[in-house]
Amino acid sequence: MAWLPVSTPWRNLRKVCATQMFTAQRLDATKALRGEKVQELLDYVHRSCINSSAVDIGQAALTTVLNLISNTLFSTDLAHYQSDLSQKFDDLIYTVMEEAGTPNIADYFPVLRSVDPQGIRKRITTIFEKMINIFDGIIHERIQARATLMFKESKDLLDSLLNLAEDNSFQLNLIVIKHLLLSVPLLAVPIKV
How far apart are the first and last CA of the chain? Predict the structure, then answer.
């Protein structure tokens, strides 16, 4: 959205972000969820202390943040404290940030952009494709669930965006939804030092 020229799609995306993503009501609605996830973190640390096992605080905090984000977006946990999925997701995001911060010779010599001499664009594209595939699976499952009669709509961001896409008042499609969802984890995951 930041690189789009001021136009109707840009205005629509801005309106969606203002009314669906960054509202005080949405933040207030997740207050109980934030408390629940912090309690899960404390329970995990407590269980680890009882078992006399070491706790990687950075990994545990990352898992908590990923679960907060994924519950806000999809109403599901993306990672668990004993799995390595959160580490893989962290590695993907860290790699994107590292590649984006790497000086690219093609930025200084535009004639080289099509060649991508350092391979930065190719690596970032591969990582974004992996993340979009994760979101694509979640979105596909949700669309299938919404088609059933037993579906109970959750009040997460994905349902709100799918409702807007069905309503077609904001000219949203699945590609735009995936890219909007992709921007949230990149903004919220803690940076490694």
Answer: 28
Global confidence as pTM = 0.76
* pLDDT computed for residue 161 by the predictor: 85
Tokens of 75: 């109403």
Number of separate domains in the chain: 1
CA dist., res. 15 & res. 145, Å (int)? 27
- How many angstroms separate the CA atoms of 139 and 70, rounded? 12
- Whether residue 1 is contained in a domain is answered as no
100 domain residue, yes or no = yes
In a domain, 76, yes or no: yes
pLDDT digits (tens, 9 = 90+) for 119-142: 998 998 898 888 888 889 889 988
Domain of 143, CATH number, reads 1.10.630.10
Identify the residue whose tokens are 């060649």. 115
Q: Which two tokens stand for residue 11?
A: 């205005």
What pLDDT does 41 receive? 93
For residue 169 the two structure tokens come to: 């008042």
Nearest to 26 by CA among 179, 181, 162, 156: 156
Nearest Cα residue to 190 out of 25, 61, 32, 24 = 61
